[in-house]
């Protein structure tokens, strides 16, 4: 989850990881080009987006060549492993989980100030083997990875309780990379609760990775747990013997993850159009959420905004000045009919097309969805929203304003489940923060961090 963040803080976090990339870059380059002599003290690498892209390309080449990598040095990170030990896992397979954990530990620079690792095992309940602040050296940590501290438990799979413990753990440090790795062979006892806990963890600034064992038996649940994109946060193997194959690729992936800094501003790095839509029954709630939202964006001159609401003017808000200038919450609103929301979506498409004629920009539509509108014409709304995403290439973020029925239609309006925000469950403040985060990620693109 990398959208809303303080760009300066993230840049500092990335710089703290330069040594990791530098060490692995030098060793990998020498392995790939043995005829070249490599200066053991090469000039410092500029940790720019271009460098990261080149480094990832190098990783791909090396991975295809079967090359190993140097440990991830100087990585400031808290990493917590959640190990499934339910009855569906044989004791010998569980021992493979412990061995995999040992292999991962050897690939990080373990210390109080760099990478810290915690682990628990879970089934009906969970047992914490060791917390993040328990061991300060790699030797101590490796010695603690055994069945005495992390016992094989048996029972049902209560994944939600395990994730809840980790995300509420007070031992995690602020403003650093925080990662939860869930190793499991199947579905949890309560998939809905597991998905909610995973979402809350992502909202709190955690990356979540899933090591799924089996032929995607529980693919949707793994997707609900993992951060996006799935291709980078879901590691699928057919059985536990193949955990060995992930001992390099998984640590390599988390080594490059920047911190997710919450409560910061969205630094706009490219031109973008944002279109906010609300039907008459949802206008007041929508305006409440949008109040002060422009204050959380930096470099707003790159934004153009339009409000597809009866209470707002049709003019384009250049520079995102805010709803106070363009909307009147006491204005006359039209009565909601079967076609009201679909008509608003058609207006949104027309407005987006007009804006595209002026410049090439990413476009994000924020749909505030109320219960009355969805009950009136849920199929028409779903069809038009999917057309907007498919044929117009507009990213859709959905704010659920208390839909009581047909919640599955709400989740179907967005291409990405993380782009659905439950306004009443999370409250106005949390909803605004999540909305900022999702808009920021969609307009900037995944993983895009450019220097200010």
UniProtKB/TrEMBL annotation:
SMART domains linked: VWA
Domain VWFA: 78-250
SUPFAM superfamilies per record: vWA-like
PROSITE patterns on file: VWFA (PS50234)
Any Pfam family the entry gives: VWA
Classification via InterPro entries: ECM_Assembly_Org, VWF_A, vWFA_dom_sf
PANTHER family according to UniProt: COLLAGEN ALPHA (PTHR24020), VWFA DOMAIN-CONTAINING PROTEIN (PTHR24020:SF84)
The protein's name in its UniProt record: VWFA domain-containing protein
